[in-house]
Amino acid sequence: MPRKIAAGNWKMHGDGAALAEIDALIAAHPDPGVGIVICPPATLIHRMAERVGNAPIALGGQSCHAARSGAHTGDISAAMLADAGASHVILGHSERRIDHGETDAVILAQTQSARGAGLSVILCVGETAAQRDAGMTLDVVTRQVMGCLPDDIDPSALIMAYEPVWAIGTGRVPDGDQIAQVHGAIRALLLSRLGLAGGQVPILYGGSVKPDNAATIFAIADVDGALVGGAALKAASFSQIITALQSA
Ligand code: 13P
Q1: How far is the centre of ligand 1, averaged over its atoms, from the C-alpha of 6 (Å)?
Q2: Residue 122 to residue 160: CA distance in whole angstroms
Q3: What is the per-residue pLDDT for 63?
């Protein structure tokens, strides 16, 4: 996958009718030159994989259980996501941390399980508004990066995503200096943790990325792409974000 990546997190949106958006995306970007990852609800992964075929769009899950199988009603394992056609999985999203109480230790175990199933991991970190106001942003992000990354993670199977919780779904976006500061800190952590290969790990920004702010965000230092929520649900808007990344 190229270093520049546009990833779409569909969250709990989309049914069979939404597969038409994938057809439109494939038609709009037959040879994108940047990485495209769509993470639909798990119920759509298999059907979406059939629609994608050999087109250059990767599919991902939005979370996974740490165990390979077992008595965990309502959960899904990394191996199941891979079996359905996923090559990636989002882990550590703030909505999972908040809605499901997922701690750094849980996310670490999920990351190990995902790698064991051969999935690449899109690992999300980010501070709440209260943590930013208290001047704790870099402490929080450092703790999350260090706590969620296994020592033996393959850097080529890792994508980082900085998603300030207060920017998700709010239309509020940090300014360029704020994004550059956190992305620079994540890059330094990756280099110290993973050596030179840490310099190659893509670092995506996520939180209210839209067609009209994407180019500005992609011009910020150490921003390698975006993890997009709402604007990834429609091919028309996600396509414009992909185009902005292509010319960044
Ligand atoms: P929005 O783009 O809707 O703010 O969502 C961002 C996000 O949480 C992606 O994972």
Answers
A1: 12
A2: 6
A3: 98
Helix (H) or strand (E) holding 156, with range, is none
Can you tell me the distance from the alpha carbon of 164 to that of 131, in angstroms, rounded to the nearest whole number?
Answer: 10
Q: Which pair of tokens denotes residue 89?
A: 């999985």
Number of the ligand 1 atom closest to the C-alpha atom of 210: 2
**Mean of per-residue pLDDT scores for the chain:** 97
- Ligand 1 centre to CA of 70 (Å) is 31
Only one residue has tokens 């250059």, namely: 56
Residues with CB under 6 Å of ligand 1 are: 9, 93, 163, 168-169, 206-209, 227-231
- 163 an active-site residue? yes
- 19-50, pLDDT tens digit by residue? 999 999 999 999 999 999 999 999 999 999 99
Q: From the candidates 29, 65, 88, 93, give the one annotated as an active-site residue.
A: 93
Please say if 29 is a catalytic residue: no
Whose tokens are 């902005």? That residue is: 244
Domains, the chain, in order of start with CATH, read 60-228 (3.20.20.70)
169-212 confidence digits (pLDDT tens): 999 999 999 999 999 999 999 999 999 999 999 999 999 999 99
Q: Residue 71 Cα, ligand 1 centroid: separation in angstroms?
A: 31
Dist CA 96 CA 236 (whole Å): 28
The 10s digit of each residue's pLDDT in 85-115 is: 999 999 999 999 999 999 999 999 999 999 9
Residue nearest to atom 2 of ligand 1 (CA): 229
Closest residue to atom 9 of ligand 1, CA basis: 229
